[in-house]
Amino acid sequence: MNKTWAQLEELQPQVLKILNNALVKDRVAHAYIFEGNRGTGKKEVSVLFAKSLLCQDNRGVYPCNECINCKRIDSGNHPDMHVVEPDGNSIKKEQIQQLQSEFVKAGVESNRKIYVIEHVDRMTVNAANSLLKFLEEPNSETYAILLTENPQKLLNTIISRCQVLSFRTLPPIHLQTRLINEGVDESSAIILSNLTNSMEEALQLNNDEWFGLGRKLVIQLYEVLMNRPHQALLFIHENWVKHFTDKAQNEVGLNLLLLLYRDILHIQIDQEEKVVFSYKKEELKKDALQQSQKKTVRSLELILEAKNKLNSNMNLQLLMEQLVLDLQEG
């Protein structure tokens, strides 16, 4: 179900306030960059904003959600709203050129035309240059909304021609509540909401047998490191690398391990209410007494360093072996 203006305003008050003022004062920018993490509502706000611009029966700035324009935007087939997504791993020059050719034509329903480019940071160099030319010669009734999780990868010349709106990361409790309402058990909902901001990704992980087994393996590795550290290398060789086979899977595993060590730190600084692995709390409390706060912080630093190395060409098994050796030394 599509969120209303009021619902999105609750999640992203600053962004919605800026867009509201732009609509009220009739000072809508010809191009916006919506930047923020996954699951922060960028796509939903872009759809809502497009409705406000094209709605036949606006209630002030709020779209009616009932007229033919609103319904066609919801179904993804409004002739004056175009959405561009990566073709494979990137957005190609041909996609931007096709978009430009559409915008040469007059609007079907009105003179207004809107285009939304998802993952705009994935444009090829040629596509980025084509988009730049498009942005440099805006039609007064043409509006661009560029969505990205990585604004630092965009050309400065593109950024300078857009109004940048930053979407704040939502607190885990927001996603946790939504997951529980969808039937996810509370302990899993707490963990998932601390792993991702995306409802879609959280539900996908929750329904994935791989994730369930991976979660168990991470806890086992943690227990080996705490109680039988001399067996950690063997565990990596016999268990970890057979299950966590690529960079993305290893990132999930390291994120879970990070949460476990963060739980220990929360216990050590008297913030037990923030423990994520709540069903392991008693065990974690015992572990928290057996090591110093300094060592816990160092462990967190080492796991973060390993996560950063995932983007290099380092062999994944060597990376994990080095991590457990470092964690043993503290």
UniProtKB/TrEMBL annotation:
Keywords: Nucleotidyltransferase, Transferase
Keyword Nucleotidyltransferase set for record: yes
Sample GO molecular function, one term: DNA-directed DNA polymerase activity
Domain of life per record: Bacteria
EC number(s) recorded for this UniProt protein: 2.7.7.7
Alphabetical list of InterPro entries matching this protein: DNA_pol_HolB, DNA_Rep/Repair_Clamp_Loader, P-loop_NTPase
Keyword Secreted: no
GO biological process: DNA-templated DNA replication
Protein name as it appears in the record: DNA polymerase III subunit delta
